[in-house]
Amino acid sequence: MMWVGTLEFDLLLGDVHSLKEKRSLVRPLVADLRRNHPVSVAEVDHLELHRRAAVGVSIVAPDSRHLVELLDAVERSVAGRPELELLSVRRTVRTNEDD
């Protein structure tokens, strides 16, 4: 069985006054998540707003325990970043048999 998990982070960025400054915070976050975790990740919403960002993460794993461990680790990584405020996280977990 294949397990798929997603996280959608709604982020408030600190003292940011332009889209260029926003990119200087979001790009390193996305790169760090890719480098440190076996995930797919992208900025997915609030693209036109300079103080908000939505970042989506997806993970495929062979079992639910491993998937939840990975999701928890990614969430801790994002929550621990002092340059942003985590407003909310939406988590979904599915199997390839959920239809």
Question: TL;DR?
Answer:
The protein is an alpha+beta fold.
CATH superfamily caption: TT1725-like
Please identify the oligomeric state: single chain
| CATH fold descriptor | Alpha-Beta Plaits
- Strand fraction equals 35-45%
List the helices and strands in order: EHEEHE
Number of strands: 4
How large is the count of helical segments? 2
What can be said about the biggest beta sheet?
4 strands, antiparallel
Q: Please state the overall shape, judged from the principal axes of the Cα atoms.
A: elongated
Level-2 CATH architecture = 2-Layer Sandwich
At the first level of CATH, the class is Alpha Beta
Helix content: 25-40%
Describe the strand arrangement of the main beta sheet, using strand numbers: 2-3-1-4
